[in-house]
Amino acid sequence: MGAGIGQVAAAAGHSVRLFDTRIDAASQAIQEISAAFLKLVAKGKMTSEAATAATKNLIHVSSLEELADAGLVIEAVIESLEVKRNIFRALEEVCNPSCIFATNTSSISITSIATGLKNPQRLVGMHFFNPAPVMKLVEIISGIQTDPRLAQSLYKTVQSWGKIPVYAKSTPGFIVNRVARPFYAEALRILNEGAADCTTIDAIMREAGGFKMGPFELMDMIGHDVNFAVTQSVWKAFYNDKRFTPSLIQQELVEAGFLGKKTKRGFYDYDVNATPIKPQTEINIKQAQEISVCGQSKAATALAKRLKHHQVIFKYAHASDDRIAQVNGVVIYETDGRSATQRSSTSSIQQLVLTDIAHNYDLASRIAISVAHQADSATKDVAVALFQAAGYQVSMIKDIPGMVVMRTIAMLANEAADAVNQGVCDAAGADTAMLLGVNYPRGPLAWADDIGLKTINTVLKNLGNFYGEDRYRVSPLIQQHVYAGKNIHD
């Protein structure tokens, strides 16, 4: 990360001094950065003159004293509070009083790091994302003592480097590492409940949810030691809030040394001889008959459009509830956070099937369904045939509340809403951070507005009622906007 940040600053025209306690680490970093500049030249993304000038901006120094006249010092060492504190205390003894101190910490309190400094107001969080030269987002984080003018200065500096900054308050995980927790946590809970295997959950999140990577693929790539440590850090910092409870499944992987790609074993086996595991996909079933599409919801509208595209005969039918289709006596609803079995019991509809949501119903290639326990053996086949006729691959999952995509998006939106409600960031900042920091297909609050805050509110309440856990408590911000009849971004 230090080398990546140095590359960005040098390319922007700054004189950059690199210091590391490891022998030759800084000089090796300069060689690697120079090689990176040459690759950019080869790709036509940088002129050779600019690459030469940027490389000349990089200077290897062998002591902190050589940073005495720096205007900005960025620390990018291991995630240890004491190590970071000691570095800044040492820097305070040698650097000019006007020098701004910045830490690239991903989760440690800026206020805590600044504790003990003579001038704690000069410390600001400047959290880049890996790889720093590529990722656009930078979180600019203020502790209690931070001088707002310095945060504003770094915000403008980052913009001049071609990055997109967002302001954040110093709270556990800041924006991205806090709001992203449910992406992993809900997947781990779904796996723990036996609703589907990790390959199927990943496929549903990619092919229906629109995410670049599924949660288990991403955890394997990040490394379970890193991901689990961040989860533990946020959980402990929030005084063991149930919303951030770490997973025993992931703990087992860490203890076994199955850390993901870097150890060639995590949720997936990365050995060259390993057999790829395919997601659970229902076999092709003969096309359903007597199809009726009901209502004007996005799911129903998209279903009708796809059936027309595949030249499947259907009719429109009025319904007194929010069902999206009915076929041969089977009634299909979009999940509202209740299980299919619970909804069947409440509605007295025996042949009841639920479908998960999709980010873009027109482009989605997969849909997940679950069937009420009261339904007969033919119910599943009727529902599978319907969605296959509309061009979807179908994954049947165990009947759990909220299914996969819906409960994940609801929890992501809920956490983002809490961050906004607690003054960590604004709604635009939360969405920007998640779009750029972890490449989500949509900002969680904009997504919640699109789904409908009433629906998100209902899903979370139904999850909370079913599990009886404080984990699914609804953010006050969402509740207030529902009462006001407004979207988050209104």
Features:
7-stranded mixed β-sheet; 5-stranded mixed β-sheet; single chain; 14 strands; 12% strand; Rossmann fold; elongated; 3 domains; 490 residues; alpha/beta; N-(1-d-carboxylethyl)-l-norvaline Dehydrogenase, domain 2
Summarize the structure.
This protein is α/β, with parallel strands linked by helices and 490 residues long.
Approximate strand percentage = 5-15%
How far apart are the first and last residues' alpha carbons, in Å? 37 Å
What is the CATH architecture annotation of the largest domain? Orthogonal Bundle
CATH class of the largest domain: Mainly Alpha
- How many structural units, i.e. domains? 3
Number of separate helices: 20
The Rg value, from CA coordinates, equals 26 Å
Tally the beta strands. 14
Trace the largest sheet across and list its strands: 9-8-10-11-12-13-14
Uncertain residue ranges: none
Report the principal-axis shape: elongated
Mean pLDDT: 96
What can be said about the biggest beta sheet? 7 strands, mixed
* Secondary-structure content class: alpha/beta
CATH T-level fold name of the largest domain? N-(1-d-carboxylethyl)-l-norvaline Dehydrogenase, domain 2
Approximate helicity band: 40-55%
**Quaternary organisation of the protein chains:** single chain
